[in-house]
Design goal:
Elements: H1 15-22, E1 28-32, H2 39-52, E2 57-61, H3 62-69, H4 77-96, E3 100-104, H5 110-120, E4 125-131, H6 134-140, H7 145-150, E5 172-175, H8 181-196
Parallel strand pairs: 1-3, 1-4, 2-3, 4-5
The structure holds adenosine-5'-diphosphate.
Adenosine-5'-diphosphate is lined by residues 33, 35-42, 104, 130, 140, 142, 176, 179-181, 184.
Length: 198
């Protein structure tokens, strides 16, 4: 039997057919920002509203990634890079299946975000800066992590003893100090709906 020289992709259900079936165009919304800036809270709210409007969407965050596929990774520089690489590859698979993802990770450096963008593809990757000052995030201290970091119990905590590089030209900037949660979700929804609508 002659060997099939064509890659498997050509023989799979095609991307455009998937989009038509799901009635949406996928994107990877890549949230970045300090711990406590509001990434998870907004991701949960945005997922709900998108789902209610008929879009198929999946939130990827520490809970379902670090406890699952990345449970063997810690917080060393190498492990953070590998964590990011795997999240981006997963997001890409979701997108190629026609699904929208909301990725909620601090992703503190330009390099990390550029790497994710290179994997996911420029067309799909939408960087969204969830903005709040260190002062406010530390006052919120949702998980008590800032107190621990200040006491030296956590090393390399972003904003305390590890830098956060503010995105220069994000697709969108959402200021959670100036706007209510509801306003933040609504302005995100308005900005992305034209991208995902067929
Ligand atoms: P992150 O995922 O970035 O670490 P969280 O979503 O866990 O942050 O925590 C953000 C905290 O800030 C929550 O307690 C949330 O209720 C509060 N908060 C106040 N205003 C806003 C806002 N406009 N958008 C999102 N969260 C807000």
């Amino acid at each position: 039997m002659a060997e099939n020289i064509f890659p498997i992709y050509d023989r799979l259900v095609q991307f455009e057919d998937r989009c038509r079936r799901l009635n949406q165009r996928p994107v990877s919304l890549w949230f970045c920002g300090l711990s406590g800036s509001g990434k998870s809270t907004i991701a949960i709210g945005l997922e709900k509203i998108l789902f209610q409007k008929g879009y198929i969407v999946q939130v990827l965050d520490g809970d379902n990634i670090r406890n699952g596929i990345n449970s063997n990774l810690g917080f060393s520089v190498e492990d953070r890079l590998e964590n990011n690489r795997r999240v981006a590859e997963i997001s890409k698979l979701y997108n190629r299946s026609g699904l929208i993802t909301i990725n909620s990770f601090i992703s503190p450096t330009k390099d990390i975000r550029a790497h994710a963008k290179a994997i996911i593809g420029e067309e799909f990757f939408k960087e969204i800066y969830i903005k709040a000052s260190l002062d406010v995030c530390e006052k919120r201290d949702v998980k008590g992590l800032y107190k621990k970091a200040r006491r030296g119990e956590i090393k390399g905590f972003t904003g305390i003893d590890s830098p956060f590089e503010v995105p220069e030209v994000p697709f969108l900037e959402i200021d959670t100090e100036k706007h209510t949660l509801d306003e933040c979700i609504q302005s995100l929804f308005k900005a992305i709906e034209p991208l995902i609508r067929i």
